Amino acid sequence: MNAAPSTGWRRLLPRTLAARLALILFAGLLLAHALSFALLFSERYMATRSMMLTHLDQDVAVSVALLERLSPAERARWAPSLERRTYRYLLGPARPGVPLTSERAREVTALIDRSLDHRYRLQARTVSTSPECFEVQLTLADGQPLTIEVTPSVMPIARWLPVVLAAQLALLLLCAWLAVRLATRPLVQLADAVERLDPARAHPPLPREGPVEVVKAATAFNAMQARIGHYLAERLQILAAISHDLQTPITRMKLRLEAMGEGADRDRLIDDLEQLLQLVREGIAYARSTHGATGPAVLLDLHALLDSVVCDYQDAGKPVTLGECARASLSTRPPTLRRIVENLIDNAVKYGGSAEVGVRRLDDGRMAVDVCDRGPGIPEQEMQAVLQPFYRLESSRNRDTGGTGLGLAIAQQLVATLGGELVLANRDGGGLRATLLLPVAPASTPTPAR
Asked: Which residues cross the membrane (predicted)?
């Protein structure tokens, strides 16, 4: 029963830690200022009350005695001069009202009676309650009624005081926001570093600065990043070594089989050895691709590079065409980019029978290299899985179209080293579109291609 309101309130809270801390500090500062303002009003009320009672006690006896000795004409002239901020003297009867309703009114009436030494018969009544106003009537010696009108009120606040309080609150809020930003910035940097964590790419370590807890977290993250990179490099080194060492015995076995007499079994064994040798070669290629692309980035014409790749395939008799191609120059590593495009074209030709290459410029400024085919496509639920090493679709597990399951994985690894992205999508009407998204802005100063 009580969980629903709590959940509802939590939904209203900001989602970021910095915003929540700022909200807490702002609420605390607001409450502190409200308390200070309340104490200020209370102090001013007490001071005003004490001042009014003190002045009234000293002033009433003198003022009434003065009015007693003046003629009626002179009283009318002097009465306004005797007026104070919270009370004044009126020559006439009191207005209709009700008996006194507040303790303060009764206390002031008693004070007036004592100040006059109980020489007058006082009639006190409340005229207004909001704002509070009460009148005390007495009769002078010549029979003229005299009314003391009392309107208790707090001393008025200076006009500059709310401005000063608002400026103080704004200044404290700004300081609190800066403090929260400084406190949470290391956490934001740590979160960004975790999101960018990629063992296949080198990243600078987090700076070890700030509070002790932040330094410990940054140190632990740097150590974890180094361990992951070391383990991955060791694993890939083992994979590359095994794959490399397997090539020699496989080659010897193939030579011995070729020296044997012709036959169906001999041809099948040679075919199996060819597939095994291809698997070993692609295993070495995958291990090397995870170490990233080497060499400096150069500025090249993307259309010229793709035209060269497509012409090489056409010279080899492969059904590969170059479609609509936007002109663009970008900073990249040509050997790595060429190898990615070749892997995508090989995959399209193997499973789709042909490939069409094109280039588009996206709205965000990136260049999109499309390699399309009209093959069977890939089921949506397996679109990401095919980018993993050694993963093959069930329909490709046969001798004719088998493959090793490393072509797209190698392309994915190499794309990451260029700071790009590989996106697969099925085409309308059948087939697959492999899109290579490349950033145009160089990561460093490029070397012009010669």
From this structure: 20-42, 160-180
Comparing CA positions, the residue from 442, 422, 417 lying closest to residue 300 is 442
- Is the pLDDT at 296 greater than 60, yes or no? yes
HSE, CB side, 13 Å, CA atoms: give it for residue 188: 10
φ/ψ bin of 117: left (φ > 0), alpha (ψ from -120 to 50), beta (otherwise): left
| Phi-psi sector, 430: left (phi>0), alpha (psi -120 to 50), beta | left
DSSP assignment letter at 381:
G
CA distances from 244 to 282, 292, 401 (A): 11, 19, 24
pLDDT band at 371 (very low <50, low <70, confident <90, very high): very high
User: What's the CA gap between 31 and 358, in Å, rounded?
Assistant: 64
Please state, rounded to an integer, the average pLDDT across all residues of the chain.
78
Task: Residue 138: name the closest of 67, 49, 54, 53 by CA.
Answer: 67
Instruction: Return the axis-axis angle of helices 407-417 and 264-289, rounded to nearest 10°.
Output: 20
Tell me the per-residue pLDDT of 244-271, one tens digit each, with 9 for 90 and over. 677 778 777 778 777 777 777 777 777 7
- Residue bearing tokens 């502190």: 32
> Whole-model pTM?
0.46
The region of weakest confidence among 239-243, 409-413, 427-431 is: 239-243
Question: What distances in angstroms separate CA 61 from CA 56, 298, 334, 394, one per listed residue?
Answer: 9, 101, 105, 111
Nearest to 172 by CA among 38, 37, 28: 28
Phi, psi (rounded to 5 degrees) for 200: -80, -10
The one-letter amino acid at 329:
S
